Amino acid sequence: MEFRDFGKTGLKTSILGFGGFHLVEIPVKEAGYLLNSYLDAGGNYIETAASYGKGESERKIGNSIMNRRNEFILVSKTGERKKEASAAQIDLSLKNLKTDHLDCILMHGVSSMEDLDTILSEGGALQAALEAKKAGKVRFIGISMHGWPGTLIEALNRYKFDAVMSTINYYDRFNFPEIEGKLLPLAQEKGAAVILMKPIADGFLYKGAEQAFHYAFSQKVSVVVTGMNNRRMLETDLKYAQNFVPMTEGEKEQLFKNASELGNYVCRQCGKCSCPQGINIPEVFACEGYFDRQMSRGEVQDTAEYALMERLRFWFGQKELGRARYEKLRVKADVCNQCGECLKQCPYNIDIPNKMHICDYKLAGRNIY
Prior knowledge:
The protein is of the alpha/beta class. The chain folds into two domains: about 5-255, NADP-dependent oxidoreductase domain (TIM Barrel), CATH 3.20.20; about 280-365, no CATH class. The protein has helices spanning about 30-40, 55-65, 85-95, 115-120, 125-135, 150-160, 180-190, 210-215, 230-240, 250-260, 280-290, 305-310, 320-325, 350-365; strands spanning about 5, 10-15, 15-20, 45, 75-80, 100-105, 140-145, 165, 195, 225. The strands form two sheets. It has an eight-stranded parallel barrel with strand order 3-4-5-6-7-8-9-10, surrounded by six helices. Helix 3 crosses helix 5, helix 6 (about 150-160) runs parallel beside helix 7 and helix 11 (about 280-290) packs across helix 14 (about 350-365). The longest helix is centred in the N-terminal third of the chain and has 15 residues, at about 85-95.
């Protein structure tokens, strides 16, 4: 399995990382089998969080593999924002994990600038992490966020974090293009490790898992972290990592064009469309990506897929960001007069006038569609 530099920390991580969230769903004996099998196969990155099952994930890891502590990089997360509470949570994580140190502690799910301000302030969680580092309880410090990367970009500009963790997959790249367009280059410039999470978009890309992992491993990241809660999944994901060959730019373009999950609804942000009424079409669709990941499409073709999208569309809790961004537009989607000029320009055969109607319904809060 390929190993990559974990930023400028001096650590090297296997490209496939073991995410601990889904360990809460299985018995400790099975968790132990999966964790040990992952290590036996050459994996060396295991990540969890204090909040996963109120410490259950950490305890399962602690009970299963701490006799092999020198074989892997161990990462946990604190969701606390203040120094005292974060310090207590770090100590509890160490107790749960049965170890005297974490290789990295992540500030967990920092979703707002207010949270970031608190974390970075005097008496904030960063102070607890720095004191833990000085005491030898933590080696490195990072920060994570799901979906919109604005707080991560701001965080890297305000503090020299060792690592940043973000959602990256071939579906959400079109909902949050700033991740690949701004966050990844900035992290590389700052020397921060990039931890890629959600390579199959919270399970949405399950039908195309192989191409999803191929795409994820091809990113300029240190490690691709995924949850694995059964033996078949572990074996399959290990195979993807062990057989990995970087995806070419041509292969990526073919994926963007042909992926069934993108279909003829998700805007690829190619910028080839224009509107005689002055609507900024890509920007309207970018607002929709923030709002609900372009998952409510005005039609139901497959009941199971619809149910999955309904579960995931507001997963990141950023609908108000989408509406606020839409509100700033000088010309909104309701100006669309269905002239159809844009239809000639879209290389992905998106029914842009219909999508405009759906977007305005969502983003303007209309009471009927």
